Amino acid sequence: MTLSNCLILACMLFFVGIYGVMTRRNLIGVLMSVELMLNAANINFIAFAYFKAADSVAGSIFVIMIISVAACEMAVGLAIIVTMYRKHKEMDISRLGGLQDE
Amino acid sequence: MSDVYSYSWLILVAPFIAFLVNSLWLGKKNWKAAAGLSTFAMAGSAVYSIKIAFDFFTQLPAQKHIIAWQYNWLEFNDTLTAKIGCLLDPISVMMLVVITVIATMVNIYSIGYMKDDPSAGRFFGTLSLFCFSMLGLVVATNLIQIYVFWELVGVSSYLLIGFWYTKPSAVAASKKAFIVTRFADAFFLLGIIITGYVLKTFDFIDINSLQAADSMNHIVSVGFLTVNVLTVSTILIFIGGWGKSAMFPLHIWLPDAMEGPTPVSSIIHSATMVVAGIFLTARLFTIFSFSFVTLDIIAAVGCFTALFAAVIACTQSDIKRILAFSTLSQLGYMMFSLGVTHDISGDEGINILGFQASMFHVFTHAFFKCMLFLMAGAVIHAVHTNDIWKMGGLRKKMPFTYWSTLAACLAIGGIPPLSGFWSKDEILLASFLSGHNIIGSIGLIVGGLTAFYMFRLFFVTFHGELKESGQHAHEDKWMTTPIVLLAIPTIGIGWIAKSYFLGSFTPLGHIAQIESPHHLTWLPIVASIMGVSGLIIAWVLYGKGNYKTATALSEKFGKSYTVIKNKFYIDEIYLHITHKIIFDKVAAPIKWFDSNIVDGFMNFVGWVLHLFGKLVRFSQNGQIQLYIGTMFLGFFLIYFIYKVAA
After folding, report:
1. B2: left (phi > 0), else alpha (psi -120 to 50), else beta?
2. B270 and B288 belong to one structural domain
3. Is position B63 within any domain?
4. Residue A56: helix, strand or coil by DSSP?
5. What is the span of the domain harbouring residue B490?
6. What does the pLDDT look like over B587-618, one tens digit per residue?
7. Which secondary structure element, helix H or strand E, spans residue B228, and what is its range?
């Protein structure tokens, strides 16, 4: 296992996330894809910490922080989705055109 | 300088406070309190003005003018500053007294006149605004200040003519008054600009001097016109006064202005505001006197208006309109009196007798004309009609009004020894002494006409048989008191004030004066005969309550009588010019150009931008994933550009 392997994995994960964000119709799916992209970043942190840093613990702590913050973020995101569902009775992102210019 | 003068701004502040309090707050709550406040403010100002006048005329200052206070208001640049201040000289002190005393009387009168009106509070507020503006106008130290107050006076006149704004005729009249005077004021402003540009000053004291006249007295070419700056600017400034004082042919607004409440007609459209034009001419008299062309125009316009309005007044049947035309005629007197100050034969200087006489007539006329209007209001209030033919026989019902009106009619008719006789006599004297014999003769004839139409009104209204509408006529104590009080100056002020006017009234600045004999023995006699004969003709035609002779006479004149009764169709000519020529031939093509060419171009620009907008709008379709994709695309683009550049 080398640094480049880890980075390639992170990169793939990131693009899977992008793909998911851009193609998923379901809002929750989009949210999950965003989470994937976030985890790609986490992997990068871990990898650089493990291979390059003098003190690898710092990187792990950072990742744990990010995960906890992301959990909060997710809670907010889900709350928004639930509200949107209640309002529009719709989870298909292509039919939620509220940002359209009238 | 004594303290009495330095606090003279208090005269202005009192009505201004009354205006603010009444208009913003008190007027709607309690009109009686508002009326009380306005009246007390004016009475206070009146007392102070009389005190100032007393001090001023008993101990004339050496220069005959005092700048009581002054402060730099607008500083355009180092050399040009508009000030605001308080200039006291014989004419402004005289006007202060006239305005405050008459305003106090009118305020008292209005308490009776407006008592049944639901918006009486608003009336008193606006009346105070008018008084403030008028007082500011007369004490103005410079052209900018006088112009500001000039317009304020116009606005308050507009508000008061249209006071009963639910009446379409009142609204039309207020607009007419405002537009006509505004039209004249445009020229006035032009005159101010030229004067300010050439002289680099707006102060009356600097303008009214030989140096100013010299520096203005040169010829310039404007395009194809070759003009004398002095003549042009003085004429332009005079046009402002022309409109405000309702000289022919800008007189059309004044008779219509009678749509307002009668106290308003009394103070604004007879005693004070309309003499603002005279006052302006008198204020700038010294500079005007260097341009004989201007003086000739002033004399011609004034003289023609005096005759023209007097002729119309003989045929009208609306009591207020008769008085309005009478006002026009008297304003004509004051105007031509200012114009006849230079000798017709040569340029040997200026005889300021005409100036003094004009101011004297402003002074006496204010009292008796104000009182006549108050009388008209009282009569209208009693019989609920403006038509003199429906009145009649009110002598028994309204004795105080009757006797006071008799005094006023005798005064305006020029019967000695009442006040009007003295001032009118001085005006005629000034015309004959300077060789303006034609103008003087017209003045004499107009004197006879004045006596005739005033006594026509008087006999028809008060004598004859009591008509149906007059059965319940009675006198209101609030309204009768000022009428009776104003009868005192009407009777007595003439011979008391004459020596002051002839002794101490001089225009601002220095004038090369010529001395002349101060009387012509035959003139007072002829003038009195004219007045008395007018009175006698009116008595013969209308005095006995039997108008057969009068009707026969008017029928005999037939067509010319109709033309005069319709005021020479001047209003119709105006309507024709404005509607058929200006609206159709000038305004309509301009409107077409505006809506098709100017608007068309702007619409085209808008249309093009709209098209671009539409193109951009396609990308903004609300699909969040497209937005995210665009964002990533942008990100990668920036990244690659960065890479390539590096």
Report:
1. beta
2. yes
3. no
4. coil
5. 170-567
6. 889 999 999 999 999 999 999 999 998 888 77
7. strand B225-228
Written as six digits, the tokens of B491 are 């009777």
The DSSP code sequence of B563-616 is: HHHTGGGHHHHHHIIIIIIIIIIIIHHHHHIIIIIIHHHHHHHHHHHHHHHHHH
What integer pLDDT is reported at residue B103 of this predicted model?
A: 92
Per-residue tokens: B221: 């070419």
d(CA B364, CA B368): 7
Q: What are phi and psi of B228, to 5 degrees?
A: -90, 125
By the 8 A CB rule, do B16 and B24 touch? no
- Nearest Cα of chain B lies from the Cα of A74 at a distance, in angstroms, of 18
- Given a cut of 80, whether residue B465 has pLDDT beyond it is no
Spatial contact of B139 and B8, defined as CB atoms under 8 Å apart: yes
| pLDDT the model gives residue B638 | 95
| Architecture per CATH, A3-95 | Orthogonal Bundle (1.10)
Please check whether residues B406 and B462 belong to one and the same domain. yes
Q: Do B558 and B603 sit in the same domain of this protein? A: no
Could you tell me if B595 and B533 lie in one domain?
A: no
Residues B512 and B608 occupy one common structural domain: no
Residues B55-99 pLDDT 10s: 888 887 777 788 888 888 888 777 778 888 888 888 899 999 999
pLDDT at B347 over 70: no
Give the H or E element holding residue B67: strand B66-75
Q: What gap in Å lies between CA B41 and CA B52, rounded to an integer?
A: 17
Q: Is position B611 within any domain? A: yes
List Cβ neighbours of B566 (8 Å cut-off, separation of 6 or more).
B572
Number of alpha carbons in the 13 Å side-chain half-sphere of residue B235? 13
Q: Do B506 and B623 have their domain in common?
A: no
Nearest CA in chain B to A22: B625
- Segment 586-645 of chain B within 8 Å of chain A by CB: 617, 620-625, 627-629, 632
Phi, psi of B221 (to 5 degrees): -105, 125
CA distances from B620 to A21, B9, B416 (A): 18, 66, 92
- Interface A-B, measured as beta-carbon pairs within 8 A, has a size of 31
Alpha-carbon distance of B330 to B451, in angstroms, equals 12
The answer to whether A96 contacts B622, with C-beta atoms less than 8 Å apart, is yes
- Which residues in chain A are contacts of B620 at CB distance < 8 A? 99-101
Whole-model pTM?
Answer: 0.78
In chain B, how many domains are there? Answer: 2
Chain A CA closest to residue B629: A22
Catalogue the E-assigned strands of B442-580. Answer: none
Residues of chain A in contact with residue B621, where contact means CB-CB under 8 angstroms, are 97, 100-101
Q: Which residues of B touch A100 (CB under 8 A)?
A: 620-622
Pairing of strands B81-88, B66-75: antiparallel
**B236 and B352 belong to one structural domain:** yes
* Structural domain contains residue B300: yes
